[in-house]
Every structure is written in C-alpha cells, then in structure tokens.
Write a structure and sequence with these properties.
Blueprint: E1 3-7, E2 13-17, H1 22-31, E3 39-42, H2 48-59, E4 63-67, E5 70-74, E6 82-83, H3 85-88, H4 98-105, E7 107-111, H5 124-132, E8 136-140, E9 143-147, E10 156-158, H6 167-178, E11 183-187, H7 193-205, E12 208-210, E13 216-220, E14 229-231, H8 236-248, E15 253-257, H9 265-274, E16 277-281, E17 284-288, E18 297-299, H10 311-319, E19 323-328, H11 338-344, E20 348-352, E21 355-360, E22 368-370, H12 374-386, E23 390-394, H13 397-400, H14 406-412, E24 416-420
Uridine-diphosphate-2(N-acetylglucosaminyl) butyric acid binds near residues 120, 124, 331, 374 and 375.
Length: about 425
C-alpha cells in the first residue's frame, strides 16, 4: 500500500490551486441521470470517489467519458435502476442515485450504504423524503427498493434530523422532486454551497427551484429536463486544508488560488481569532502566520457553521497552539479517530463525550501513523508538516478518495513530502 512521508518543519511559501468540489460533483453526476440528453461537467476533481461514481453511472447504463477534469455523461434512453452493494458500500454518496433513478424510471434499487468509520450514518431522512413524494419503499436483503407506480407527486418534506439538516438527503429529494407532479417544499433543507451548486445545475437543466441556500427550498416539478454544461464550484474543504497548512508552520506565507472565501467564513473567523492573517484576494486568499497561535473553542455545525469536514485539520493546528482548546463535534459525535494518531505524534488530546480537549504544545514529533478516514488523513499530513522529524502516514487510500495530488500541491509550496509507492 502507498504511504505518504513528510519531513516536518519547512516553512510553506507560494501558491496552490484548489480543485473542484468533490461533494458538489458527486450529486451533480447523479443529477445528470435525470435526462436522457448528454451533459458536460467541468472542473471535476480527479479523485477516487469520482472514479467510483463513474463506475456506478456506467453500471446504471450511462456512457461516461472523463479526462482532464472534464466529464461527459450520456445517460441515454434506458437506465438500469440498480446500484449494487460492491459499489455503494465503498462510498455513501452513491446512495444519491436513488432519487434520480426513481424519478426517471419509476423505481430504484440501491444497496444500503452501511456504517462508516466516522460514525453512524443513517438514511432515514432520504427515505422519509422520497416516501413523501409518493414512493413506496421496502428494505430487503440489504437493498432499498423504491417504486412509484403512478409517478412522483409534490409534497411538504421536513428534513431536519437529530443532528440538523442532511446534505445528501436534501440532494436526493431535490433531484426526485424536479420531475414530480406539482410543488414540493423541502423544510429544514441543507444550505451547504454544494447543495446550491446542485440546484444551479438542475435549474440549467430546466428545473424550477427557488430558495436554494436557505432552509426552505421550493420545487415545481417539470415533465422533462435537458442536458447541460456546468462548472463545479471550488472545493471549500480542500481550500480550508491548505489554509490550515499555511498556518501550521510559523513563518509560512501561502496563497490559496481559486477558492471562494465566502464559503469559508467560519474557518476564516477561527483562523483570524487564532492570530493567523487571512487576506482576501481577487481569486483566493493569502495566509500568513508569524507569531504564536492562540487557543480556540470550536463547535462543528451545518453550514454556515464550522464544517465537520475541517474539524480534524483544525485539531492538528490546535495541537501546536499553546493553551487549552476544546473542539465539540455536533454532526458526527464519534468523528475522532485521528485523536489517537495525533497523540502518537506527541500531542495531548483527551476525549470527553463528543468533545476533544486539546492541550496544545509547541512541538510535535514525527511518527508512523495510520489514516482512518479522508479528513483524518489530511490532519495527519498537516501535523507532519509541523512536526520535528519524519512522519509516515499509512492507508492513504482514504486520502485519495477526496484530495487530488495533495502531496504534489504541498511540494509546490516547499513542503518536504512524497508518496512512496508500495
Ligand atoms: N443523518 C440522519 N439521517 C439521514 C441522513 C443523515 O440522521 O437520513 C445525520 C447524519 O448521521 C449526521 C447528520 O445527519 O449526523 C448530517 O449528515 P449528512 O446527511 O448531512 O451527511 P451526508 O450528506 O451523508 C455530506 C458530505 C460529508 C459531510 C456531511 C456533513 C458528501 C458526499 N458528503 O455527507 O462529507 O461530512 O455532508 O457536512 O457530500 C467528507 O467529504 O469527508 C464527508 C464525510
């Protein structure tokens, strides 16, 4: 298995360019199935989750062609409405092909996605939403089977769960509702920029949608959608990871190009409070850190709150921040697999329920560590950049799911980092 090796302590300087957002791309790929016409999607990141979604679309009968960040999808007239376990189990986002196949074929059969290392990830809100649109749903032998014999019809769907709104449930119901008869209201809808990008894609296809980006989305169903061209928004989580990279080694000066700072307000606020200089630029942000950092208390929330997908990276930063910081997880209360690995590098983090108490130190020491999920992998690389000596990160297939050539991008900033092939 490949591993990443980082020699810590180098100041980062220069520019890094952000790729397209993985979490916007995946539902947009599913949405392309809502028409039989071809679509062209640009700024598609070259990451493993996109490759998995390509396999699923092919399995469903679409013709796909991906090269140089441009993706052409030709769904054709006939779709196969079945997504098997061996594909869905590797990536939960694949569950969002259920809404489009149901809307287009009147049925969909998708494997239950199962558990996940970052904690329980139920699908009750997806099912509740699709049932409200008239689908009858059964769960049998590990598969969700949805049918709508007389076609979907609009309805009022409240998508708030125990931990707030759900991003992919909002996406699934939004996609299904575009072809339903009549009007649908999604209440407590997710407001994430990735949901807005999906809605923008659907509107180009001919869908009638209002309120995207707010907690109330209104959709008036149409009979048919068309194929379109679309450019995916920049990845705010990748951008945030590079912003933390620019802050973690004293004396660094990094320009993160192509990001949309309006999508990163919570992070910018926390970095600024910690003493990092974040300067807005025409197409990106400049990050500088000179002095000692200040400790912080951070709680993750749905957008526009602090994103759970940057919690691990921020924790890496707080391990080299003198004083006590508290990070509380409100989206995935168990998303702390990175804590024990950071502690192997000399940090002192204690878990107390869904909070991590970080006793920051001035130095970390490089060590062999194991990545447990996508964002944890990024956090370990960041810690490695700041640590004395060598950090070896194993199981980086997690990293490859969502970061495009991160080691090359960090090398361009002067980091001493390489991928060692198995
Ligand atoms: N939830 C339910 N019922 C549901 C669905 C979700 O209770 O039917 C709960 C979840 O267990 C969680 C909360 O609602 O506690 C929010 O989960 P959400 O459904 O919003 O997560 P998701 O849509 O499955 C997306 C991202 C995740 C990101 C979350 C939260 C994609 C492909 N994935 O997942 O991204 O953490 O939203 O922002 O968009 C990542 O990129 O590393 C990643 C995990």
């Amino acid at each position: 298995m490949d591993k990443i090796v980082v020699e810590g302590g180098k100041k980062l300087k220069g520019e890094v360019r952000v790729s397209g957002a993985k979490n916007a791309t995946l539902p947009i790929m599913a949405a392309a199935l809502l028409t039989d016409e071809p679509s062209r999607i640009e700024n598609v990141p070259d990451v493993q989750d996109v490759a998995t979604m390509l396999k699923i679309l092919s399995f469903l009968g679409a013709k796909v062609d991906y090269s140089d960040h441009v993706l052409e999808i030709k769904p054709g007239r006939k779709l196969n409405a079945f997504a098997p376990y061996h594909l869905v189990s590797t990536m939960r986002a694949s569950f969002c092909v259920l809404g489009p196949t149901l809307a287009r074929c009147g049925r969909g059969e998708v494997s239950l996605p199962g558990g996940c290392v970052i904690g329980a990830r139920p699908i009750d809100l997806h099912l509740k939403g699709l049932e409200t649109l008239g689908a009858s749903i059964t769960i049998d032998h590990g598969y969700v089977r949805a049918q709508s014999k007389n076609g979907l019809r609009g309805g009022v769907v409240y998508l708030g769960g125990k931990f707030g709104s759900s991003v992919l449930a909002t996406a699934n119901v939004l996609m299904a509702a575009t072809l339903a008869r009549g009007r649908t209201y999604i209440e407590c809808a997710a407001c994430e920029p990735e949901v807005v990008d999906l809605a923008d894609f659907l509107v180009k296809m001919g869908a009638k949608i209002k309120g995207q980006g707010s907690h109330l989305i209104e959709i008036e169903g149409v009979r048919k959608l068309r194929g379109v061209q679309h450019t995916v928004i920049p990845d705010r989580i990748e951008a945030g990871t590079f912003m933390v990279a620019g802050a973690i080694v004293k004396g660094s000066d990094v320009v993160v190009r192509g990001c949309d700072l309006d999508h990163s307000r919570a992070l910018v606020d926390k970095l600024t409070q910690a003493g990092v200089v974040v300067q807005r630029m025409e197409s990106g942000a400049r990050i500088r850190r000179n002095g000692t950092l200040r400790p912080e208390d951070i709680t993750t929330h749905p957008y526009p709150g602090f994103p759970t997908d940057l919690q691990a990276q921020m924790m890496a930063l707080l391990t080299v921040t003198p004083g006590i910081s508290v990070i509380t997880e409100k989206i995935y209360p168990d998303r702390f697999m990175h804590v024990s690995e950071l502690n192997r590098m000399g940090s002192r983090i204690f878990l107390e329920g869904s909070s991590a108490i970080v006793h920051g130190a001035r130095r970390l020491s490089g060590a062999p560590v194991m990545a447990s999920d996508l964002r944890a992998s990024a956090a370990l690389i960041l810690a490695g950049l700041a640590a004395e000596g060598t950090t070896e990160i194993q199981r980086i297939y997690h990293l490859d799911r969502g970061y495009e050539r991160i080691e090359e991008k960090l090398s361009l900033l002067g980091a001493n980092i390489k991928r060692v092939k198995a």
